[in-house]
């Protein structure tokens, strides 16, 4: 196809691409090519060019795409959801829906690796952690996990690491079915023996690493977990408790009952059902387990002026650093949804939340009193009604009347009450069971007397400081104003692809026809959702060149794990169970190694050449050494060094010849979509980051979706439906395992990549990729004299990102790559990727969405910083006295009466003229990372801490 700069502003592609025709031609001239086709022919090895364009439908306009999404939403049937099973009806306060979930300042923010420009989202996530700590009664919580099922799996993994002598885990049969399915198979993958039993009858057997207890159970029953906790402790194991956070407003906290770990899902704190996700799961642990907790932790440190400041704590735990020694492969969170849940707690406060919990419980009790024949005496919000032989009949009748109930078994119906339930609903529900509700006074509690909460919940002042919508609106805005997100500036993060997120798709995620569908609703209610998902999976298969795609994995890390499990199970099914070695290049994403370990594969590192490509000689040696045990190689393409490797087909052929499979990490698909297909040039499996190439926004570190794409021989090993398996027995090796709690994972944001593909089509995909490569090469060319580009490929070109080398400048001046990151804050930029994959460097990725003016603004900032470095090299100023060393600068610091620097306030805060028109000030000075790790504080500090 002909790649042409776009000038017509009437279609989505023109709106998505930053450079117009004139700007693209200027950029091509600087790079040294007269057309996009010539540039791509020079940059992209001919050996990987796709055989044919993806078979995508003709591109739609934004209005047409939204009209089509309206049609799909109308095919779904929205019922009043009383289904439960881990997903509850809730009411999203409009101020949070519009102020957080639908606000670009929140949804386009990136993971807070640069904390000085992330104080708003870090504070909101710290609120989330504090909320979870107080509700669970444990001192350490992380900033969220992906879903409840995988959170339980993470808890099991944590227990197995902490209790090294045991090889068996006990799962309470009262856990939700999807939780049992995912956790059991994840445990078996790391060679733990799994026993599923009703733990209230006691524990049997030895060699236990721990137990996971439901509190409440999936049928709503509440049992005191403390005897089981005491028993596992006497055996040297650990106790994890899975809890509904709303119930913990009324029930004793698991921590007070002795739990070591508490996990669950915060979805019912104001986050829509979203057909299964994204939702923010949580995990909290005791003090002794804090350094083994998976995921991210927000901690409190101090800045250069001694003021409290937030940062990600214990960052050596990050997976790109610890690799195969990582505590988990989770390198992200459900940040946007955790923010929403925390804001829900701030908005309602402890009394408001308790009122919601009491009202839910009262309605459930009133209903139970009416129907009479209930299975469990004690419950919180879920009533299991006994209807011998009539469960399906009752649920069908309720469905016809617009109510979604749950068939627990042939004789039992589950009715779970949520926030929007009313007295009228109680009357209607009772009628399905041929019962009537008494008009008497409020019923008595059905909570166990000895388990009623007598400890305070949400005592921190932040949860009692907002009393009106006006206050809430301003609090959300105040936090948002502290941050830099894509709505303010280019985020030139290499390997992370911070591109335009189409509003036409984003706007639709909260439409009731999509957002209010329960993930376990019958297929008759979900025709629109399933049609959208089937189309998206087919389009992604077309773009990647694979036979089939599953969108179930709800993060890139989960997609990696799903792909590696598919490979592992494929080998075992073929009688090659000894194939357990995974080759991983030294430059690979850190999650690759961590995912391999979780798939029970042994990591062997392959060296990289000086140009950043896989060292073929070392690859040959590793294959010769491990050939009989070789399961797979994991490679990233283009390479993590930002170049297209000419040898990729050779790498694939060598591994295939040895009987291994090729996993191609799809994180850099933004350099290939529409031009090359990994499934055609040697890949057997890839995962994709829909929150990168396919425009789901990063949301401050989540949501993400990480579909897995496979060749024909691996189709049977794609993730299976968690409700279609029997967790009590190990799945036969000839099929895939469930990865997340629901069949379609985080379905609730799939309208976004659907819209992106629908509005770009094959030509638009190719043009987007070509412009991404153009932008990267333009920056590489403009910056190379000042900051040499470390790696280039064919014709001296890079892929969609480039690595600039600061090491010679560091040796000459003392200025580090981290110093440059902090100084860029003063120019209003998020920093590039720091020290990955090479220490002392910055990886820059502009994406196709940035126009020439924004690219030049970044160039100006970098060249100004280079001149400041030269001042140090020339001896005009010492490094310790330089403007770079002390960056960044707050509004308070440059307006203070005290200014003890040799450079001017103007040089510090307004180093270039354009900043006089639009200036971002960070809320804190440079943060002391070491102090934060030495003094780990992971809950909100008191307000007076900020009065320095």
UniProtKB/TrEMBL annotation:
<protein>
    <recommendedName>
        <fullName>glycine dehydrogenase (aminomethyl-transferring)</fullName>
        <ecNumber>1.4.4.2</ecNumber>
    </recommendedName>
</protein>
<dbReference type="InterPro" id="IPR049316">
    <property type="entry name" value="GDC-P_C"/>
</dbReference>
<dbReference type="InterPro" id="IPR020581">
    <property type="entry name" value="GDC_P"/>
</dbReference>
<dbReference type="GO" id="GO:0016594">
    <property type="term" value="F:glycine binding"/>
</dbReference>
<dbReference type="InterPro" id="IPR049315">
    <property type="entry name" value="GDC-P_N"/>
</dbReference>
<keyword id="KW-0663">Pyridoxal phosphate</keyword>
<dbReference type="GO" id="GO:0005829">
    <property type="term" value="C:cytosol"/>
</dbReference>
<feature type="domain" description="Glycine dehydrogenase C-terminal">
    <location>
        <begin position="768"/>
        <end position="889"/>
    </location>
</feature>
<dbReference type="InterPro" id="IPR015422">
    <property type="entry name" value="PyrdxlP-dep_Trfase_small"/>
</dbReference>
<comment type="function">
    <text>The glycine cleavage system catalyzes the degradation of glycine. The P protein binds the alpha-amino group of glycine through its pyridoxal phosphate cofactor; CO(2) is released and the remaining methylamine moiety is then transferred to the lipoamide cofactor of the H protein.</text>
</comment>
<dbReference type="InterPro" id="IPR003437">
    <property type="entry name" value="GcvP"/>
</dbReference>
<feature type="modified residue" description="N6-(pyridoxal phosphate)lysine">
    <location>
        <position position="692"/>
    </location>
</feature>
<keyword id="KW-0560">Oxidoreductase</keyword>
<dbReference type="GO" id="GO:0005960">
    <property type="term" value="C:glycine cleavage complex"/>
</dbReference>
<dbReference type="Pfam" id="PF21478">
    <property type="entry name" value="GcvP2_C"/>
</dbReference>
<dbReference type="GO" id="GO:0030170">
    <property type="term" value="F:pyridoxal phosphate binding"/>
</dbReference>
<feature type="domain" description="Glycine cleavage system P-protein N-terminal">
    <location>
        <begin position="15"/>
        <end position="432"/>
    </location>
</feature>
<dbReference type="Pfam" id="PF02347">
    <property type="entry name" value="GDC-P"/>
</dbReference>
<comment type="similarity">
    <text>Belongs to the GcvP family.</text>
</comment>
<dbReference type="InterPro" id="IPR015424">
    <property type="entry name" value="PyrdxlP-dep_Trfase"/>
</dbReference>
<dbReference type="InterPro" id="IPR015421">
    <property type="entry name" value="PyrdxlP-dep_Trfase_major"/>
</dbReference>
<dbReference type="GO" id="GO:0004375">
    <property type="term" value="F:glycine dehydrogenase (decarboxylating) activity"/>
</dbReference>
<comment type="subunit">
    <text>The glycine cleavage system is composed of four proteins: P, T, L and H.</text>
</comment>
<feature type="domain" description="Glycine cleavage system P-protein N-terminal">
    <location>
        <begin position="608"/>
        <end position="720"/>
    </location>
</feature>
<dbReference type="GO" id="GO:0019464">
    <property type="term" value="P:glycine decarboxylation via glycine cleavage system"/>
</dbReference>
């Amino acid at each position: 196809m002909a790649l042409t700069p776009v000038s017509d502003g009437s279609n989505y592609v023109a709106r998505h691409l930053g450079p117009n025709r004139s700007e693209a031609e200027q950029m091509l001239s600087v790079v040294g090519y007269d057309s996009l086709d010539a540039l791509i022919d020079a940059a992209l090895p001919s050996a990987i060019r796709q055989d044919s364009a993806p078979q995508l439908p003709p591109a739609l306009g934004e209005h047409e795409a939204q009209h089509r999404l309206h049609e799909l939403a109308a095919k779904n049937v929205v019922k009043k959801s009383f289904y439960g099973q881990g997903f509850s009806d809730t009411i999203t306060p409009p101020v949070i829906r519009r102020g957080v979930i639908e606000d670009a300042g929140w949804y386009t923010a990136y993971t807070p690796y640069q904390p000085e420009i992330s104080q708003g989202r870090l504070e909101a996530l710290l609120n989330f952690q504090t909320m979870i700590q107080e509700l669970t009664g444990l001192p350490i919580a992380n900033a969220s996990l992906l879903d409840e099922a995988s959170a339980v799996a993470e808890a099991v993994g944590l227990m197995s690491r902490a209790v090294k002598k045991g090889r068996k885990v006990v799962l309470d049969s009262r856990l939700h079915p999807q939780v049992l399915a995912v956790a059991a198979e994840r445990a078996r993958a790391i060679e733990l023996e799994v026993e599923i039993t009703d733990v209230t009858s006691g524990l049997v057997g030895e060699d236990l690493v721990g137990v996971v207890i439901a509190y409440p159970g999936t049928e709503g029953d509440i049992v005191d977990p403390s005897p089981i906790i005491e028993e596992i402790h006497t055996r040297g194991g650990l106790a994890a408790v899975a809890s509904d956070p709303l119930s913990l407003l009324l029930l004793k906290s698991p921590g007070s009952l002795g739990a070591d770990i508490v996990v669950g899902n915060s979805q019912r704190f104001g986050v829509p059902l979203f057909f299964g996700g994204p939702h923010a799961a949580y995990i909290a642990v005791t003090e002794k387990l804090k350094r083994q907790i998976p995921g991210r932790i927000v901690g409190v440190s101090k800045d250069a002026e001694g003021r409290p400041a937030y940062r990600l704590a214990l960052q050596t735990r990050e997976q790109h650093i610890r690799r195969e020694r990582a505590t988990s492969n989770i390198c992200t969170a459900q940040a946007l949804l955790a923010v929403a849940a925390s804001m829900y707690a701030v908005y309602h406060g402890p009394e408001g939340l308790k009122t919601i919990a009491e009202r839910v419980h009262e309605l459930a009790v009133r209903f139970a009193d009416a129907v009479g024949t209930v299975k469990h005496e004690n419950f919180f919000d879920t009533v299991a009604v006994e209807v011998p032989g009539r469960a399906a009949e009752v649920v069908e009748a309720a469905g016809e009347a617009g109510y979604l109930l749950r068939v627990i078994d042939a004789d039992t119906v589950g009715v779970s009450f949520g926030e929007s339930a009313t007295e009228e609903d109680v009357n209607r529900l009772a009628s399905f069971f041929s019962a009537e509700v008494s008009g008497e006074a409020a019923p008595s509690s059905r909570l166990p007397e000895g388990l009623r909460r007598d400890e305070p919940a949400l005592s921190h002042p932040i949860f009692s400081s907002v009393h009106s919508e006006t206050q809430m609106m301003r609090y959300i805005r105040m936090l948002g104003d502290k941050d830099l997100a894509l709505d303010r500036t280019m985020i030139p993060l290499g390997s992370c692809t911070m591109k335009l997120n189409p509003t036409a798709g984003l706007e639709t995620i909260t439409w009731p026809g999509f957002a209010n569908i329960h993930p376990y609703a019958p297929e008759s209610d979900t025709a629109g959702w399933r049609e959208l998902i089937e189309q998206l999976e087919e389009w992604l298969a077309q773009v990647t060149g694979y036979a089939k795609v599953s969108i179930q994995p709800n993060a890139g890390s989960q997609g990696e794990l799903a792909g590696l499990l598919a490979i592992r199970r494929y080998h075992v099914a073929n009688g090659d169970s000894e194939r357990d070695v995974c080759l991983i290049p030294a430059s690979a994403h850190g999650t690759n190694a961590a995912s391999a370990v979780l798939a029970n594969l042994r990591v062997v590192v392959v060296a990289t050449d000086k140009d950043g490509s896989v060292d073929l000689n070392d690859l040959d040696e590793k294959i010769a050494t491990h050939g009989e045990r070789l399961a797979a190689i994991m490679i990233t393409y283009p390479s993590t060094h930002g170049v297209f490797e000419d040898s990729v087909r050779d790498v694939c052929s060598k591994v295939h010849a040895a009987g291994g499979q090729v996993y191609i990490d799809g994180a850099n698909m933004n350099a290939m979509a529409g031009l090359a297909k990994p499934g055609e040039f040697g890949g057997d499996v890839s995962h994709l980051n829909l929150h990168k190439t396919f425009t789901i926004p990063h949301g401050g570190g989540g949501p993400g979706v990480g579909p897995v794409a496979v060749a024909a021989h691996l189709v049977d090993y794609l993730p299976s439906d968690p409700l279609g398996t029997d967790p009590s027995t190990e799945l036969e090796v000839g099929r895939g395992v469930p990865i997340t709690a629901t069949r379609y994972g985080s379905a609730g944001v799939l309208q976004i990549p659907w819209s992106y593909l629908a509005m770009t089509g094959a030509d638009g995909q190719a043009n987007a990729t070509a412009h991404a490569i153009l932008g990267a090469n333009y920056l590489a060319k403009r910056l190379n004299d000042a900051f040499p580009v470390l790696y280039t490929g064919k014709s001296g070109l890079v892929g969609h990102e480039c690595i600039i080398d600061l090491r010679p400048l560091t040796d000459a001046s003392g200025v580090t790559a981290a110093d440059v990151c902090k100084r860029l804050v003063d120019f209003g930029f998020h920093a590039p990727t720091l020290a990955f994959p090479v220490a002392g460097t910055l990886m820059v990725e502009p994406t196709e969405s940035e126009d020439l003016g924004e690219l030049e603004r970044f160039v100006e900032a970098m060249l100004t910083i280079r001149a400041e470095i030269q001042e140090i090299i020339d001896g005009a100023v010492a490094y310790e006295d330089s403007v770079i060393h002390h960056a960044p600068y707050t509004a308070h610091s440059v307006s203070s009466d005290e200014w003890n620097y040799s450079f001017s306030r103007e040089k510090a805060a307004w180093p270039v003229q354009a900043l006089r028109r639009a200036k971002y000030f960070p809320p804190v000075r440079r943060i002391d990372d070491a102090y934060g790790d030495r003094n780990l504080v992971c809950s909100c500090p008191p307000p007076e801490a900020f009065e320095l």
